[in-house]
Structure formats: structure tokens, C-alpha cells
Amino acid sequence: MRVPLKRILDLRQLTSQSSRCLNIEHTRLLLDQGRQSLRTYHDQGAPAQEIVSAHARMIDQILVAAWSSFVPPADQERLVALIAVGGYGREELQPSSDIDILVLFQRTPGHKQREFTGKLIRFLWDIGLNVGHSVRTLKECTTQCAQDVTVMTNLMESRLLSGNQDLLIRLRSRTDPSRMWTAGQFIKAKLDEQITRHLRYNDTAYNLEPHLKEGPGGLRDIHTMEWIAQRCLGVANLRNLIPLNYLTETELRGLIRGKNFLWRLRNALHFLSDRSEDRLLFDYQREIASQFGFTDSANLAVEKLMKRYYRTAREIRLLNEFLLQQIQDKVTPSSSTHASVLNRRFQQRGGYVEARQPDVFQKYPFALLEVFLLLQQSPDLKGIRAGTVRLIRSNLKLINSEFRRDIRCRSLFMEIMRAPLGQTRALRQMTAYGILGAYIPQFGRIVGQMQHDLFHVYTVDAHLLFVIRNLRRLELPEHELELPHASRIMNSLFKRHRLFLAALFHDISKGQGGDHSQMGETESYRFCKRHDMSDYDCHFVSWLVRNHLLMSWTAQREDISDPDVIDSFARLTGDQEHLDNLYLLTVADIRGTSPHVWNDWKGKLLRDLHAATSQALRRDRGTPIKREERIIDLKNESFK
Q: What distance in Å separates the CA atoms of residue 86 and residue 319, rounded to the nearest whole number?
């Protein structure tokens, strides 16, 4: 039988004791009993919102009782206040989260005040609470808020637990965000903070062990939305953004579902680890998947759990992106008033691509790809305007078999792949908005598809995009010293778009059963054929996909100092063109698997194998692959 939440901790058991002698062991016992009740309630399927709220109320009771025990009655109403801040101030407290409190004094505390404050904090530590505390005066709070936006956002969510109510009122007045930071300064500071935070996690939510709070698409992204909306629009919560047309009802429901799912995951993680662990560690994923009711079938239960997480994080990040863009336009309207025409369908406003008409995609479905080409062709553009993103997402159903056969769509996609720059950015945006998964259904199937091993730290789709990023990185002068040999080859490459396509398809058949290299070979050949590439180029791309593991395997498992091994490898690669492309794909693939997998030793092995095989090919140890098709292809290229 589920324990009623209101009985998780009975305050009377604390307050019935002498107010001057709160007992550590007894209080710790009550705290442990309360936490165990919360865990039971969680295991029985209680909504995550109820768990975090009940935990906050339980801690409130302990802190209030402790305050009454340690703070002299004369001080409780006159000079000092106990204030909950941060997440605890929002009454959102997960099982092992830090309990952030502020002991606020009207003026610099004397010896007596420092003494009872010290006793209070030591007691809270002794009973097993993870307390993050600060002891400040009104003046100190005001000064720190003016200097640090993080301190200010913590205090924006303050609430009184006990003590002098007037102190909290004065604190809120003095540290009101409108007095501390202008709306423009505030949103810039929080956006910069978010960008820095995302970069700590490689700017992707698709890590094997994602951080549920701080990672892209995590809970902190939702908090950032709430803080900015509160400061810049004066709304108490995100629901109030619906009548202001910043969010739709559907978007808000999706955000709430996402938040509750992340809360439930984080609750489970805290209960299992018995600590404030916010990374969804590999060791806990299987058990949490079982708790959440996922079962093994064609895909493992843990893969199903993680796929749901990744799609949730992607949705939260997307909503965060275009909500904050809209608020930024509101805060700095001068940057979004003037529009300049890009073509008949799109214009540029405030550094963002924008549809000129709301029915542009219904009239011109191919514009669903064209918008990304325009973004790619103008590196100074910051992205796609929020309203246009909504139109893209609401028109995804237009991408069907007829759309994929349309010569305009096929040409636009190939133009994106052939462009001199911007492939990484364009493909990432297309993935984020659902376009790439709709245009290439095979890619859509691996969006959020994890590989449940410690070798691959990203989902399959994120890995493919990282490989393309690594290839583009080899072309950039500012990165040429990282891998000089590979950079020289990349910058002399013929038809580099073939290599990008091979990178996009090399793992696209993972998780479907069978040999993913062989299946990917078939899928990539069909795709290239549908996009009017020559027979030679179709075979070239599909050969790279089929053999993308060959060079890594040979370099690391064979004796590459043996001439027979080199001659055999030369016969497999056939010619210098295939060897160069395979070398570049291998380097980019390994570097895109994990930040820790690539090392100088592997780099030297691959470089030595490439050099030795190049010498063997010059000695005619190889047989060019599809020689006749290549001759025809070169003739056709010369007439273009």
C-alpha cells in the first residue's frame, strides 16, 4: 500500500522534543524513514513531480525544526532569516540533490550569530543532509548579484523558511533583476552561460552517459527558459507564454512531459546510486530501463530507454532554442525589424533565415531543403527564425516518396553535400528539425539509437555527424597542425562530396540486424543512384561504406611491417584514390567514436599503413577498382 505523502515525515515527532535539544540520531532516523518512504513511493510509480515536491516539504520541516532549536527566539524575528534558494527555493528537490539555503542577516553578524549559524550547519551535515549554504548580509547579497548572474538567478527563486519575513522582502527589492541587470545584459549572460555549459558536453545531448541536469537538452535548459522568461517578459511561469504567442499549448505539454521524464530518470538515478549522481551512467541504465517497464526485443530494453531520453533531450533543446530566440528579438527589437530578400521564398531578418509567407512549404515543398542550403551559403547567418522552424516541423509530412523523387529536392540535397563549406552545420540543423531523418528514412531509424558499449560514447546519428565534422575540420587552415598528413590529403581530394556521403552512410544500418557494413553498402548505392551520380561514384561511395573498418582493422591487428600484408592491403584498396578516401574516413571515424579513443599511436599506425600502401601501389601491387567506369566518369567530368 502506498504511503500517503503527507505522512512521509511527521513534524510532531521533531517539535515534541525540547526546542533546545534536537537529537541528531532521532532526526537522522526520521530523515532516513522519510527517504525510504519516498523511494517506495517512487518504485510504485508515483509521478516525479510529487516526489520532488514531497521531498522539499520534508526537508522544510527538518530545517524549520532545526532553526527553532539553534536560533535564539530574540533573533528569529529581528535580525536573521533562513531562506531556500535555487531548485530548493522552487520546491523542486530530488532525492540526493544539494539543499541550497541562505542565512541572511540584516547586518554583519556578531560572535553569537556566527556561533548559532555554525551549530545549525554542523547539525544539518551530521544528520546527513547535503547542504549548500551561504551566510550573507543584505549588502553582500546586493553586491554579489550585481557581479554574478548565477547568484542573482539563485535568489530569484528564494522563499522564506523561517525568521524575519521583512528581510526577504527587502532582499527581493534590492536584488530585483530589473535593478541589477538590464534585460539585454541578462539574456546575453544566460545565453553565454548556456553555450559554455553545452560545450562541456561536446555540444550534444547524444552522449552514452548523458548529464541529465547540465547537458544539452537537460533540466538546466528548462530552468534557463524559465529564468529568462521571468526576467525579460515578467511572467511567473512558462504557461503564461501561451497567450503571448511565445509557446503553443502543444509545445508546453511536450516541455512538461520532457521535464517529468527527466525528473523521473534523475530520481531513479539518485535512489540507485544513493548520491547526487546526475550522469545517467552506463552501470545504472539497464536497471532503470527495467524499472521503467522496457523489455528486450529486437532492440535491448536499455536502448529503448536511451532512445526515449535522446528524443526528449532533442525536443527540449529545440524548444529552448526558438523560445530564447523569440525573447531575444523582443529584448533587442532593432535587430529584427529590417528584412532583406534572399529569394522568392525566403528573407533574412536579424541574422536569421525567415519564410516570406506562412504557406511557403505547402506551395513549394522543395523549400524544406532549400532553407538549409541558404543557411549554408551564408555563414554569417545565425540560424533559422523560430516561426520558420515551427513551419518546418509542421510540414514534415510533405517529405514522402514523391518529394524524394523530385529533381529539385535531389539537386538541393546534393548541392548541400557538394558545397565548399557548411556541411556540418546544415546537416546538424536538418537533423534537429527532423528533415534529415524524413528525407533519408534509414537515418531517421538511427536517430537516438545508442550503441550499448563503452567504446561508442555517442548515438549512431550523432556519431555520423561527428565524422562529417571531423572531415570538414581537416579542410580548415586553423586545424591543419592537428593532423598535417591527413589535412594535406583532404585539401587535394577529388569529389570530396563522395567522402561526406560515405561518412553519412557508413553506420546507417546499425541496429537492424546483420552486417551493418554490407547493408550500408546497399543503402548507400541506392541513394547515390537515386541522386543521379555516375556508376563509378555510386560504387565508390558504397565501397567506402562496405570497407570502412578495413584500414583500422589492418593497422591495429596485422603486422604492417610485413611486405605481404602491405601488398594484400594494396590489392584490396586497388588504387590511390580509394586508399586516400579510406584513410580519411578511418581517421575521422575513430576520432568521432569517443574523445578518448584516438591517440598518437593509432595515428602513426594509420599514417604508416597509408604511406607503405601508397608505395606498393606505385609498384603496381594494386588493381584499380572499376577501371572502365572510372575512365567513363573522368571523360564525362571533362565535358562539364
A: 22
DSSP state letter for 161: E
Burial category of 194 from C-beta neighbours within 10 Å (exposed 0-12, middle 13-18, buried 19 and up): buried
Owner of C-alpha cell 575512365 = 631
pLDDT of residue 1: 42
> Cβ distance 225 to 323 under 8 Å?
yes
Count of other CB atoms within 10 angstroms of residue 26: 13
Rounded distance between C-alpha atoms, residue 269 and residue 39, angstroms: 11
Sign for the CA dihedral angle at 154, 156, 159, 165 comes to positive
Q: Report DSSP letters for 26-91, one per residue.
A: HHHHHHHHHHHHHHHHHHTT--HHHHHHHHHHHHHHHHHHHHHHHS-HHHHTTTEEEEE-HHHHTT
HEC-encoded secondary structure of 261-326: HHHHHHHHHHHHHCCCCCECCHHHHHHHHHHCCCCCCCCCHHHHHHHHHHHHHHHHHHHHHHHHHH
Task: Report the SS3 class of residue 437.
Answer: helix
Cell triple for residue 328? 531575444
Residue range 98-145, pLDDT digits in tens: 999 999 998 888 888 889 899 999 999 999 999 999 999 999 999 999
| Phi-psi sector, 139: left (phi>0), alpha (psi -120 to 50), beta | alpha
Dist CA 9 CA 48 (whole Å): 18
Measured CA to CA, the distance from residue 460 to residue 431 in angstroms comes to 12
Q: Is the dihedral of CA 281, 284, 289, 295 positive or negative?
A: positive
User: pTM for the complete prediction?
Assistant: 0.86
- Which set of grid coordinates corresponds to residue 147? 557581479
Mean pLDDT of 468-482: 95
Q: Is the pLDDT of residue 149 over 70?
A: yes
Summary count for the chain: helices (H), strands (E): 33, 8
Tally of CB atoms within 10 A around 327: 22
Q: Across residues 411-437, what is the average pLDDT?
A: 96
Per-residue pLDDT tens digits for 544-557? 999 999 999 999 99
Handedness of CA 543, 544, 545, 547 (dihedral sign): positive
